[in-house]
Amino acid sequence: SNNNFSYQRAMEFNDSCYLMCGFDPDFTNLSLTTYVLDSSFNIIAIDSFPKLWNGISLIKRTNKSFYASGRHLVSMPGNEHDGVAIEIVDYDSSLVFNLKNLYHYEKYGADTPDYPLIKSVSSSYNNSIYFASNINVQYPLTFINSWISVFNFDSLLNLNWQRIIGGDECYIGCEMFATIDSGCVIAGYLGDLTSQMYDIFLVKFNKNGDIVNSILPNSMYVKTHIIYPNPGNNVLNVFIPGNNKETTIELYNSLGMLCKKEVFNSENYYIETSDLANGIYLYKLLQANKIFASDKWIKN
Q: Which helix (H) or strand (E) holds 61?
């Protein structure tokens, strides 16, 4: 090929052809370019998928379709940032590729970068699909707190459940694979913000999204919510996986005075905080007038 091309993934597509994909290493064209090769490695088709790039994983679905996951450029009013995405790609008899379905996870307001795991998608034994992504990971690593988001879909990419782990240190997920009992295992490492030392973790989820086993230096549990960035500045983002209940967030200053109170019923929400003074705040999340989460948020 005469194109400027950075290799990402390759796979055997069917009995007579192979698939190889990559992107422009100069980042001037943020799209996934896919080459279809015959059994003698001659190029027989070229196609591209706009806005899907980098961190690519591929899994064969049928002889005419596959799952592709990676970073996904998401356009927002006045802002473009990266989310993560997984999609079903199929092709017709003339090797023209089409996106059948797309699931992308994005955050609203002030963005923090998301990266798929190095091996981020795996097919389960009950025909469901696992997908995982690193949230708020900065490269080169700056040891800020980060999370790992784990998704389980049916074969058509309808979301069954989503779980969030980590957040107390810098978590970097590296690999995920489905297990014979239809669960999945996530492996990676974490860094301590103070000592800047590394350690490994290994976490197993069952098919219902419960953690059934883990290896790591401290106890790992599923997060009910994420407040980010923390410390932050002009925006406080709230993420509650799968939330559709009426939820209230309250923000109190160090004197105990209520500074913000807003109501929402979605999994993503953000509050403008540019009018607040720098300092330490207490947030409370309530549903049905009961507090289900409370902690500190720092504005600097």
A: strand 52-62
